[in-house]
Design goal:
488 residues; mainly alpha; Serine Threonine Protein Phosphatase 5, Tetratricopeptide repeat; 0% strand; disordered C terminus
């Protein structure tokens, strides 16, 4: 009984008393303050150690890119290079494998490209492309912040293609152009204007290679895309029309070319923003049409007008100036103004040698034409030497049936003919004719001049029947001269 009373008084219920697991209210508040303080300290530390430097670096990076662009524009190339390299190092430190790194590489690549350091430029473009391939959404942090993913990737790959093309590595260039088109179509859609632009670039390369049917198909595709974009696509439309017209010149479809060029010029003077570069290209191509039709004075007027526009658009050292100087020089040669033509060709060669390198195929094309000027002047030994210089470069970098090699064979043969080395001249005229026949077909007006040259040499060698047969074929094709569209 006492035990029961004692148990009741002690509050014993038969269960172990429950001990509280919570600290007092004062202790809880203390711990919470400690946690808040630790969080603040961590945040401040994170700011000073990571976020602050990263944000500062972001501003520094952009400032360096902009300053590098300004230095390059002012032709302070050592300063521009140092700024681009510093921006690249900063981007790689704070944003590895990001759009900032890729854009730094692109700016540095463009710098090297402008300095004609093509291997360095190509390597940087390829590294940038690899970043975009791993992360297509790694858009440039400020230029294309709101742009769709893939736009920078496609542009970088297009630059890779153009560098391959400049080095006459046409197979790799073709693959890269097609890859760039596929990227743009996947991320942006088949009717995006950049798709039209890259398609036109590939078409231009096909035309240069005399792959005329493929070039024509691609130009028509680019024109169709540009037309779907209305006024926004007007510049691309004009460019596509001019490119297609150039193909028609190669095909001997001069009236078709003329109609396309007149339409292009009308667009360029209205909705295309009055672009001097576009107008220069169109007028120069129209000059080719009139030249091919034997209207040399009209062709010369158009070439000179195009030259004025090109100077306004790109300055005296723009590669387009060299092309137009060559066109005008060709007109001078047709008129017997050989010394004036030689002077223009030397200017053109200096521009292309500076921009593309003295051993580039583009410079070799002008060297080849310069040999023709020497031949017209009766300086046959110098013509031979100059043509061989051009041929050595072309044979090293171009395929054996490239049209430029056919042109140079023809010019070297003219030098041999002038020296009285008729058998050697005949052999080279025949090689040139064989190449052009494979490229353009046996009845193309592009072959007429070489056929006439070969007929003349055959006649001098006493092969009268063969000479008359060749001359008769040339006359039946319906032309007495070759189109002036020599692409170098």
């Amino acid at each position: 009984m006492d035990a029961e009373i004692n148990s009741s008084q002690s509050g014993f219920t038969g269960r172990k008393p429950k001990l509280s697991s919570h600290p007092s209210k004062k202790k809880r508040r203390h711990r919470w303050l400690v946690f808040e303080l630790a969080t603040v300290v961590l945040a401040v530390g994170l700011w000073f150690l990571v976020i602050g430097p990263r944000m500062k670096a972001g501003g520094d990076w952009e400032a360096k890119i902009n300053a590098g662009d300004a230095a390059a524009k002012a032709k302070d190339y050592p300063k521009a290079k140092a700024l681009y390299q510093s921006a690249f190092r900063e981007a790689r430190r704070y944003w590895p494998d990001s759009g900032r790194v890729a854009l730094s590489q692109v700016h540095l690549a463009q710098f090297y490209r402008d300095q004609n350091q093509l291997a360095e430029a190509l390597a940087l473009y390829q590294q940038a492309a690899q970043i975009y391939e791993r992360n297509p959404a790694a858009a440039s942090p400020y230029e294309t912040f709101h742009a769709p993913p893939g736009i920078d990737w496609g542009t970088v790959v297009e630059n890779i293609a153009s560098l391959y093309e400049k080095e006459s590595r046409f197979d790799k260039a073709e693959q890269a152009y097609k890859h760039a088109i596929a990227i743009e179509e996947k991320f942006l859609g088949a009717d995006w204007l950049d798709v039209a632009y890259i398609t036109s670039q590939l078409a231009f390369m096909y035309e240069y290679q005399s792959r005329l049917d493929e070039a024509e198909a691609l130009y028509r595709q680019a024109i169709k895309i540009a037309e779907k974009n209305g006024n926004a696509g007007s510049a691309g439309l004009a460019e596509g029309l001019t490119g297609l017209a150039a193909v028609h010149v190669d095909q001997g479809k001069y009236e078709d070319a003329k109609q396309l060029l007149l339409r292009a010029y009308e667009i360029e003077n209205s909705v295309a923003g009055n672009d001097d570069q576009l107008k220069a290209n169109t007028l120069a191509t129209l000059g080719l049409v009139y030249g091919a039709q034997g209207e040399g004075q009209k062709a010369l007027f158009l070439d000179e007008r195009a030259l004025v526009l090109q100077k306004k658009a790109g300055g005296m050292e723009h590669p387009g100036i060299a092309t137009l100087l060559m066109d005008v020089a060709q007109r001078y040669l047709d008129e017997g103004k050989n010394l004036e033509a030689e002077a223009l060709l030397r200017r053109a060669l200096a521009i292309r040698s500076k921009v593309f390198g003295a051993n580039s195929t583009l410079a070799a094309g002008i060297t080849s034409t310069l040999s023709l000027a020497y031949d017209y002047e009766g300086r046959y030994k110098l013509a031979e030497k100059t043509a061989k210089q051009a041929l050595a470069i072309q044979q090293k970098k171009l395929r054996p049936d490239d049209p430029d090699i056919a042109f140079t064979y023809n010019r070297l043969a003219l030098a041999y003919e002038g020296e009285g080395r008729l058998a050697e001249a005949e052999r080279l005229f025949q090689k040139a004719l064989d190449i052009r026949t494979r490229l353009y077909g046996p009845e193309s007006p592009n072959n007429v001049v070489i056929m006439e040259n070969l007929a003349r040499v055959d006649y001098k060698e006493g092969k009268t029947a063969l000479a008359w047969k060749l001359q008769h074929r040339a006359e039946n094709i319906g032309r007495s001269r070759q189109p002036g569209h020599e692409k170098h």
